[in-house]
Write a structure and sequence with these properties.
The chain is α/β, with parallel strands linked by helices. Helices cover about 40% and strands about 15% of the residues. The longest helix is centred in the middle third of the chain and has 20 residues, at about 150-165.
Amino acid sequence: MRVAVLGSNSFAGGDFVDLLLEAGDYDVLGISRSAERSPAFLAYARRPRDRFTYRQLDLNVDFDEFCAALDGFAPQFIVNFAAQGDDAASWTHPADFFQTNCVALARLIDHLKGRTYLQRFLQISSSGVYGNQAGTIAEETSLAPESPYGVSKAAADLLLLAYHKNFGFPVQFLRPPNLYGPHQQLFRIVPKSIVMLKRGQPIELHGGGLAVRLYLHIRDASRASLAILERGRTGEIYNVSPNEASQIRDIVSIACDLLGKNFDASTRVVEDRRGQSSGQQLDSTKIRRELDWSPQISLQAGIGSIKDWIERDWDQLAAEPLAYVHQT
């Protein structure tokens, strides 16, 4: 089975490639706009490469070559992780988010709609397309995004559904909550907390860290993606979520315990962020029932896996910035 992973250099894309190579049953083409990252930020970097090929191509710039690479490889499955993906940055660079998440994607799926080799196109969407609605959010819940990022992802989903309806385009959707795990960007809350604890710097808890969030380990999300590809129906949306939500302070507390640090001495309370919400109640009954998926990695074990990764690659990670860096 041939699988093309778009955005394979990303945190989620790299972990999915790692899962495929671990399984050993797939030939994999990875495509991203940048050169392959170092092993510290790339889950599959230490795997044998005999069934993996990497191409550095930017869909916004190298469209013809990008499409030629896919046509030459002729994958039965395509998984699209390629996206601009930070809520806060989308307010500063909205045009970049729409260009990558909507315009470039529209050109790609129009090219792919007549390709007979394609059996499944899995779009990695986001729970952000639902916005901060109250109550339980199932796949049928109306879309109500509240940031340029969320709007761009919702627009992409609606476009793909239109192609499914009118051309039979074999799209599927995964809508995850916040993801975390080894090799993640260091500005995210879990790795950032561990790095700051190791540096002896205080962790700021906005509003006391009382905000409730859903955090799913990246490997559980990758397992969900593979289950959808192999056994899910086309034209279907699948939410994924952990078994329970967590307060931000709970996550930081686990990190403190793992590093032997005192929580009160290692944190400080600061003003809450504007527009802070209480978090979503994302219903993942559908994928649990239809595809027998459930999360396997507890929050404690998952944060422990990040601690182990950071300590293993500390010589490189210690010098890395902890702020988001936007790339056009």
